[in-house]
Write a structure and sequence with these properties.
single chain; alpha/beta; Rossmann fold; 2 domains; five-stranded parallel beta sheet; 12 helices
Length: 268
């Protein structure tokens, strides 16, 4: 990463994650009133938001709770479980003020909670206070990591219920790839957003393929990142399943030599 990009990422910037264009426009306008030279970036769902957090390293993040694909609670949970983002200042934007939500957000260490519908004067004051308190912070651990980045192997994220097959994939993908093993569907999503692998391999017996909502969420994540999905099929029936017609497929073989050949065809 060149010096100009690192310097840009060290500047104060704000990310607003909300699926409402009018909310983004309002926040952008109010932030401009506080300080006109602050870059304000937008994202319309949690997945897009997480990718932009990792890319832009914002100083403050405003997050709506009710969003498609991945909601605010899911996003904040992933952020807090990512060590280099554990102290990122997050401000919640929501019309929901229920006790259970408030307790959950307190556990997730959000720094402020702004209720919708907004009072412009009140939000303007809150923005001033937030910039004064957190505007000087730069996530040095992220920048240090980015500066030191060297060319790496291509990441391959593997979600497969059978540990033996998962290890076979990790073994046979070749020296140009770095295997990353996921233990569950939620672990897969967390690791995908964090690692941005070039290829995702998912076993057809995985819960991902038996839950339409989760499958769509995974597809959205993969398409957003322009990664390739490989389906690791349990049977001929799975291999011929029309649902996987547009995906790269690997058929499981009990004969490990045949399996190795099958995997190596994909990971050339």
């Amino acid at each position: 990463m060149n010096e100009e990009i690192v310097q840009e990422q060290n500047k104060l910037s704000i990310l607003v994650i909300d699926d409402s264009p009018s909310t983004f426009q309002l926040m952008n306008r109010l932030i401009f009133k506080v300080r006109s030279n602050i870059p304000v970036y937008g994202a319309s769902n949690g997945i897009e938001g997480m990718l932009k957090i990792l890319e832009l390293n914002p100083s403050i993040v405003f997050v709506d709770l009710s969003m498609p694909v991945m909601d605010g609670i899911e996003l904040i949970t992933i952020v807090r479980n990512t060590p280099k983002l554990a102290d990122l200042p997050i401000v919640v934007l929501s019309a929901n003020s229920g006790d259970a939500i408030v307790r959950k957000l307190a556990e997730l260490k959000v720094v402020d909670y702004i209720l919708k519908p907004f009072s412009n004067a009140s939000v303007l004051l809150r923005i001033k206070e937030l910039i004064a308190k957190y505007g000087h912070q730069v996530n040095s651990s992220m920048n240090a990591k980015q500066v030191e980045e060297k060319p790496q192997k291509k990441g391959v994220l593997i979600l497969e219920n059978n540990e033996m097959y998962a290890m076979c994939i990790a073994k046979y993908i070749g020296a140009n790839y770095e295997p990353i093993l996921a233990k569950s569907s939620s672990d897969f999503i967390n690791k995908f957003i964090e690692a941005k692998p070039e290829i995702a391999v998912i076993g057809s017996s995985s819960y991902v393929f038996h839950n339409e909502f989760l499958y769509q969420k995974v597809r959205d994540i993969i398409e957003e990142s322009k990664s390739k999905l490989v389906v690791f099929c349990d049977s001929d029936k799975d291999y011929m399943n029309p649902a996987y017609a547009n995906e790269v497929r690997i058929k499981k073989h009990e004969n490990l030599s045949d399996l190795e050949d099958e995997i190596k065809k994909v990971f050339k």
